């Protein structure tokens, strides 16, 4: 089911706004970990707050990216069959890579 244009626009803006504080949080925290060994990073990520924020950052940025690519494909791919195949491939790629990213955080933080 395709999103109507207004809903798509609102969700795209919402995810962009949600990503701002998450990116600031990430940058500020990662700057403190530059040069630290893996064990220090893992201990940092094992904090429930850091793990939840990291997963939120992944979900928000991947969803925002998927919406952006959706918009680009709608604007520049005009053949209906190619558009449908591109949209399907886009969804599959973003979901798979996003899930792998979230699972990596879960593995490092909790396993």
Structure commentary:
The chain is built from four helices and no strands. It has 111 residues and is mainly alpha-helical. The protein has one domain (5-110): Up-down Bundle (3 helical TM bundles of succinate and fumarate reductases). It is elongated. The termini are far apart.
Strand content: under 5%
Percent helix: over 70%
Unreliable residue stretches: none
Number of strands: 0
Task: Tally the structural domains.
Answer: 1
Which CATH class?
Answer: Mainly Alpha
- Give the overall shape, derived from the CA principal axes: elongated
**CATH architecture label:** Up-down Bundle
Instruction: Give the overall pLDDT as a whole number.
Output: 94
Question: So how many helices?
Answer: 4
The ordered string of helix (H) and strand (E) elements is HHHH
Rg over CA atoms: 17 Å
The major sheet is characterized as: none
The CATH topology turns out to be 3 helical TM bundles of succinate and fumarate reductases
Assembly type of the chains comes to single chain
Helix-and-strand structural type = mainly alpha
The CATH homologous superfamily corresponds to Fumarate reductase/succinate dehydrogenase, transmembrane subunit
Task: Write a brief caption for the model.
By secondary structure, the chain is an all-alpha fold.
